[in-house]
Amino acid sequence: MATYLPTLKQLQYLVALKDHGHFGRAAEACFVTQSTLSAGLRELESLIGITLVERTRRVVRFTPLGLRIAEKAQRVLREAEELGDLARAAGKPLSGDLRMGVIPTIAPFLLPRILPKLRAAWPDLKLYLREETTGAACDSLHRGHLDCVLLALPYHCGDIESVDLFLDQLFVAYPEGEMDNPPREKIAAADIDERRLLLLEDGHCLKDHILAACNRPELRAEAAMLGTSLHTLVQMVDNRLGVTLLPAMALDAGILDNTRVVVKPLAADHPSRRIALAWRRGSPREKEFKLLADALREAE
């Protein structure tokens, strides 16, 4: 008896529809027309003899079995992609496409310094960057949408391997004159007024790193978590709305230029975050990622 198996293209259509929840957006993501994607999914359902998706004019609803098959299809696609990774890893290292996620508290400060050096060192590498919060980037990594992630640790990112690149020290940033009496070289976490503390909103791991470094549980409840970006926090501090903490890489990139914000190192047991490159455990490109980590470390 002949066995008819789903094609990778059909599985790609199914996963795209699961990710986007809309036939039009799924078709755009697959670079096909909506009718082509819909026909491919109907062929898949006919092939396996099961309805995977309930279709209405307004809602795309997966059946329970459809959800299970979509999850399995995602793993199959990732495994198929890794076949190409195996061949690439055996050839010229750091060449071809590489999709790297970068978190927002790293991307605007580190990438302008390192990308020109990476292009010069590895001209055959086509690096595609995607800026996401840490949780979203880790999810994209395990879904196979990203090959590796440039992030800050500690953070629970699932079953990964990682290489530390460097430590990024934390500094207390405050309006000129606010914390200068008495004069001091460093500012202890105990001296930070929790009613004046400005942090990033939930979803940014830097907030958790700051709270962990300060080791003051009450800050989580009392801090005014208002900022959507470090640049926003700096503007708030410059307008005397509070104090915040900033990583050294942001200061090195000139985030305080044309402001009257003062910074002093945070006095704490662990006043820094670890910048690292992470990838899925068991990836056939592990040697490439370690090579990339060395290049990032040297470029920094």
Key phrases:
300 residues, alpha/beta, single chain, Arc Repressor Mutant, subunit A
Can you tell me the residue ranges where pLDDT is under 50 for at least 5 consecutive residues?
none
**Percent in helix:** 40-55%
Q: Decide which structural class fits the backbone.
A: alpha/beta
Number of strands: 12
Largest sheet: 8 strands, mixed
CA radius of gyration: 23 Å
Q: Distance between termini?
A: 60 Å
CATH class of the largest domain: Alpha Beta
Secondary-structure element string: HHHEEHEHEHEEEEHHEHEHEEH
Query: What overall form do the CA principal axes indicate?
Result: elongated
What is the tally of helical segments? 11
| Strand percent estimate | 15-25%
Q: How many separate structural domains?
A: 2
The assigned CATH architecture of the largest domain is 3-Layer(aba) Sandwich
Mean pLDDT across all amino acids: 86
CATH topology of the largest domain: D-Maltodextrin-Binding Protein, domain 2
Keywords: DNA-binding, Transcription, Transcription regulation
Family: Belongs to the LysR transcriptional regulatory family.
InterPro entries: LysR_HTH_N, LysR_subst-bd, WH-like_DNA-bd_sf, WH_DNA-bd_sf
GO molecular function: DNA binding; DNA-binding transcription factor activity
Brief write-up:
The protein is an alpha/beta fold. It has helices spanning about 10-20, 25-30, 35-50, 65-90, 105-120, 135-145, 205-215, 220, 230-240, 250, 285-300; strands spanning about 55, 60, 95-100, 125-130, 150-155, 160-175, 185-190, 200, 225, 245, 260-265, 270-280. The chain is elongated and about 80 Å long.
